[in-house]
Amino acid sequence: MAEKLSAVKGMNDIAPPVSAHWEWLEDTLRSLMRRYGYRNVRTPIVEPTALFIRGLGEVTDIVEKEMYSFEDRLNGEQLTLRPENTAGVVRAAVEHSMLYDGGKRLYYMGPMFRHERPQRGRYRQFHQFGAEALGFAGPDVDVELIVMACDLWAELGLEGIELEINSLGQPAERLAHRQALIGYLEEHADLLDEDARRRLHSNPLRILDTKNPAMQAMVNGAPHLMAFLGAESLDHFNRLRALLDAQGIAYRINPRLVRGMDYYNLSVFEFVTTQLGSQGTVCAGGRYDGLFEQIGGKAAPAVGWALGMERILELLKEQRRLPEPVAPDAYAVIPDVSALSVAMPLLRQLRAQGVSVAMHAGGAEGMGSMKSQFKKADASGARYALVFGAQELEQGMVAFKSLRGDRAAETGQQLQPLAEVAAWGPGLRGF
């Protein structure tokens, strides 16, 4: 016997009935995007490694430690499994001149890949859904995206998700803050852990996001970027706040909110919960006006967010908001294989009318008794059993039996003419 193979640790199979929850969430997200005028974009899972080095920043954790990168054996090109998709969407927009006739509202969903220590809400292959507004400069679109996420939480019935916002200003403002921050951290070098010392001169802003309890008090006293913002950056942030206030969107200003990619500027935001432990960020994003130029395009403003599908589903499970699995409308009970020549064409007609029907199958050896078939019909969750018995078929009939609700207690079965499937078929979709 061959050795049993398993999935790579941290890269999970998604099978029924759990996959039904994924489909439901995906359908909900697609519906939300349509209502806001966002259109789907699909980019490759594999991108040039340089895209992420330039876009995310060479000294970010993602580029330094988390990317799955390899050399193409055909031509020696350096390639990477995408660790996020904003850079890929912008690369596609530049490559295909998407903004030649104005801004674009786009969304994507799919798997991303990072070297991680697998744990609840954090996997090596994980799935993101993202919304990107390209070519729009004002804070009105930033707020549109934030409100869109709030609408999603309401639609899903999720509670306890809080919004945190901050402004990262512009590059020159961040540079001035960076110099002041390095000076402050050098004064407290004895309190820095190994990771912070490594970042001190390469990416000191990320030290503010430390989870080390021993550094919290020191970090809380560090210079705030907000104090270095110029008039235009402050105006953008204040207009964003005013628009949020006008719509009754509650938020908290978090001066330590910095995000993990170098491409962000001006407004950044996160939606967080306390119900998922250390993986409490369920959706995050912000403005990234410089990314188009970083990857070789013409300057263009842009803003977006991404959410982790696994974390949203975990939170839905935690709050008991996941829907019941969708059951078929009917289950076809086939007492004998000789009935298949009549049953299968009729079931096809029903499905063409939008009726979902599961058919008992297994050939002459696996049909089983009527009793066992009815057990499977009941276990399927179907509302009706359609019985293709020999006597019924001789009369040109099919027998209906209700399996759910009050009608399930009724004795006997109702007969319906096979020839009138167009008339009685739609009735199977509901009582």
Automatic annotation (TrEMBL):
GO terms for biological process: histidyl-tRNA aminoacylation. The keyword Aminoacyl-tRNA synthetase applies. It catalyses: tRNA(His) + L-histidine + ATP = L-histidyl-tRNA(His) + AMP + diphosphate + H(+). Keywords: Aminoacyl-tRNA synthetase, ATP-binding, Cytoplasm, Ligase, Nucleotide-binding, Protein biosynthesis. It is an enzyme of class 6 (ligase). Pfam families: HGTP_anticodon, tRNA-synt_His. L-histidine binds at E84, N85, T86, R114, Q128, E132, R259, Y263, Y264. The keyword ATP-binding applies. GO terms for cellular component: cytoplasm. CDD domains: HisRS-like_core (cd00773). Gene3D superfamilies: Anticodon-binding domain, Bira Bifunctional Protein, Domain 2. It is found in: Cytoplasm. Homodimer. This is Histidine--tRNA ligase. It comes from Hydrogenophaga pseudoflava.
